[in-house]
Every structure is written in structure tokens, then in C-alpha cells.
Design brief:
133 residues, alpha/beta, Transcription Regulator spoIIAA, five-stranded mixed sheet, two-stranded parallel sheet, 4 helices, 36% helix, globular
Length: 133
């Protein structure tokens, strides 16, 4: 996986692929396309259907940064899995909520889920729950 990437770090926690987004700001088109490509490649190389995107480093994003999340959702949907964003900052939650990529209660597979911590994200995926923790 993308061990030398300036955009992501990947690892497994309890059999779930965890992709940590490294940049603090997601606002440049070239950066966002590279991020999307690396995340989707990591998902496709993984044996895990469920994915956690660790957002603790991201402090700011613009609308162009929505692109990776659409790509992530599509790649995981193809596998029948789910995506949980862990530790998203307030602005990240605001942008993704306005864009309807995340919802408080998951109504369909077209939405990403959120968790306040990595541990909560793991519990959410392991429990099969569809609400934010």
C-alpha cells in the first residue's frame, strides 16, 4: 500500500483497513486527485470490505476535496462494504453534511458514516450499527 505517500498512511486495525489522511488542508486540485487515486488504490488492494478514513489531521477542506469521498464511497460500495470517517474536524463535518455525503443516521449506502474516534469507528463497523458514535 501507499507507505511512502505524502497523502495517506494505511494500516489494519482488527481486520479493518484504516487510511489516515495526512495533509492538514485539502484545497488544491492536483493534491485532491492524487489523494483520491491513492485512497481508491489502497481500498482495491485491501482484503477488507469495511474502511475507516482517519481524518484527525485534516483541519480544512474546500468543495474540490469532496471528490475523494465520492471515489471512496464508490470503491467501497462495489465491495458491499461501509466507510466510516473517524475524528473529522467541525469544518469537515459541515462541508460533508451540506454536500449530503454524510448524515447523522445512515439511510442508504450512499452516505458515509462518522465516529468521534478510531475506537468508535471500529465498534460501529463491528456492530453493524448505522448511527454516529
Amino acid at each position: 500500500m501507499a507507505d511512502d505517500s505524502p497523502y495517506i498512511r494505511s494500516r489494519y486495525e482488527q481486520g479493518i483497513l484504516v487510511i489516515e489522511v495526512i495533509p492538514k488542508r485539502l484545497s488544491e486540485e492536483s493534491q485532491v486527485f492524487a489523494l483520491r487515486n491513492e485512497i481508491v488504490a489502497a481500498i482495491r488492494e485491501s482484503d477488507s470490505d469495511d474502511i475507516i478514513i482517519d481524518m484527525k489531521n485534516v483541519e480544512y477542506l474546500t468543495s474540490i476535496a469532496l471528490l475523494p469521498f465520492v471515489g471512496i464511497r464508490g470503491a467501497v460500495e462495489q465491495r458491499g462494504g461501509r466507510v466510516v470517517l473517524s475524528e473529522p474536524a467541525g469544518i469537515v463535518v459541515d462541508v460533508l453534511t451540506v454536500s449530503q455525503l454524510i448524515v447523522e443516521n445512515r439511510e442508504s449506502a450512499n452516505h458515509l458514516q462518522m465516529a468521534d474516534s478510531l475506537e468508535s469507528a471500529i465498534v460501529l463497523l463491528k456492530s453493524g450499527s448505522d448511527t454516529r458514535v
